[in-house]
């Protein structure tokens, strides 16, 4: 349908406002506040006489970044409001308000509703400010539009909003840290890398503790939206200080380096931390902490606060940071220790035994502290990995059910824990194959994890599988800047370009991943499929000849051989794949058959993959290898069943 069927206002919409006509007076007041804040708001009062209501509403809903819903005793019974709210909920764009204290209807209770029943509905009201912050968080970078004029208070220098005032002072001024785009380049000195703290205990078995402490400090700093904190993988490349400060800072693209060492002995711990200027190598701040082990959580926060304070002293606009405790953490040393041991095992990614040992450690942490949200999130992701890689069908179903429950527990315990929402999205998508249900947790992951390269990569990968190429590209670009030496980030970037049919860009990203980690054979297979899609059969053949799993290599060989009219070679490659993997690779069989032009067998293989809940189906909607069957009714039905559309 052509765009000119709809009003110009719908094309520029950033906020869709849903309400009952009975509440129009209050709705107009809220709409005015949103517009004064610089947002383009669509509401039904914009409809011109004779205009098609359904078409205009549909267009505005599709284009809106945020769907603000005004619940009241009248609107909770409105089918229109319910339908519009459902669209906002399912796409992760919902901002619910309660006008008169009414509870949202069934199906919307999991979203925190902003109660404006006692609100003055003006620019200085705290609940209205919450609404504006929530709307801003759903826009790129979480930034208020440049033309907003809501703030009656003068904008303070962020240096004055440091520790002690922090987030509270910003809220009092009508501002919050997440309303600043950390990637705008306006503050070039806000890049920090947290290098691995050295274990000085003399016992290599204690490496897990120093690495875990480093990770916790890095995570806490990454929640400061005014800092760009380099991801773990890139930072770990400089374990043991390979190179001077200037060289390390240059390779990581940052100005500051946080370094240190840890010595744990009995029930005491000694930590030394040093913040240096990567441009000169000079120390900007250094401090030693010798405390009882039970004070470890306070020390983590003290270090994060001290880093922010030191950066403020050398920047024109220093970053604010809150004194809050670690999000999703624990006050139990024993639980923390078990969690760190589990994390070390999980990240080692050695084999099934190490993954199951990691799971046991996360279970131990939760047995000690059942409200340890980070441990629940880690448990969920580990259950999902075990189910995906090692389990038979019956165990896989059970493990994924447990993964969903563990992730939901994490998000219920700490709603602001990005890792919990990410784990939930992963379990729902890869385990339950419910792409529709996974949308909301992934959107929450993005909103909460904007400074975390791993969370950004996971969100980007998910969005690419929904064929949302712009959102996926933007997120993976941020992730690669935060973790520039992480081969997985560039592998994900390659996947996103591949699913977006940008094959030249995909090849470039895959080659970057290979350059960073040439030992991961599957990177070559991904490069091979991009080459195959461009008709570069010889190059693809060479890529597939590199060491990799047969489930990657053999489908490529089967497709290439068929394109070369080598029927016997194609059949032999497929037969070897089927003999090796049996019922575990129906998705790959579907890819091969689709490329052979055998629609019937491709669709049958997809049905078999669905019956066995093959996690490969998460790529179904975007996979270019399945393009030949996309118009088939069976394919379209499966796409809808899984919630892609």
From TrEMBL:
GO biological process annotation, one example: signal transduction
UniProt keyword Transport present: no
Repeat (TPR) residue spans along the chain: 487-520
InterPro entries, alphabetized: TIR_dom (IPR000157), Toll_tir_struct_dom_sf (IPR035897), TPR-like_helical_dom_sf (IPR011990), TPR_rpt (IPR019734)
Keywords from the UniProt entry: TPR repeat
The keyword Secreted is annotated on this UniProt entry: no
Highest rank taxon of the organism: Bacteria
Domain TIR residues, every copy: 15-125
Protein name: TolB amino-terminal domain-containing protein
